[in-house]
Amino acid sequence: MTPEAAFFAIIVIALIIDGILFVFFGEKTVRKLRRNPATKDALGIEFVSGWDILNVALALTTPRRILHKIKESPLKAFRSDADLLYLYTTRFDRILARLLYSSLIITVLALFTLMFLDKLGVFK
């Protein structure tokens, strides 16, 4: 097995794990937030199905100092209200959100790194 194929296989396995985490977080946390009348409208704008899951994960992952700057910007309607979400989520929900979002970021960066190295001809 070539190093490129091994790296790609690891990325595919990580993507499968990310998909499982995405569905679990959506079913466990975001579904609970959608049913709650206080948080139903605080999940941000959903461009495509499932986008609110990423909005909630990002809101629970981003440091509060950055979130307060975002809250003052004109684009605040696109984001979830993190202060409200913190009131209605448990510690497990926040850990799951951080795990999901960090694994997605790492997997996507690894995929882009693989594409960049392949474009440079490192694997030839």
Descriptive keywords:
about 120 residues, mainly alpha, about 70% helix
Describe this structure in words.
- The protein has helices at 3-35, 51-61, 64-71, 82-88, 91-120.
- With 124 residues, it is mainly α.
- It has one domain (3-120).
- Helix 1 (3-35) runs antiparallel to helix 5 (91-120).
- The radius of gyration is 17 Å and the shape is elongated.
- The model has no long low-confidence stretch (mean pLDDT 89).
Topology:
Layout: H1 3-35, H2 51-61, H3 64-71, H4 82-88, H5 91-120
Helix pairs in contact: 1-2, 1-5, 2-5
Brief rundown of the structure:
The protein is an all-alpha fold. The chain is 72% helix and 0% strand.
**Number of distinct beta strands:** 0
Shape category: elongated
Q: What is the mean predicted local confidence, pLDDT?
A: 89
Strand proportion: under 5%
Q: Largest sheet at a glance?
A: none
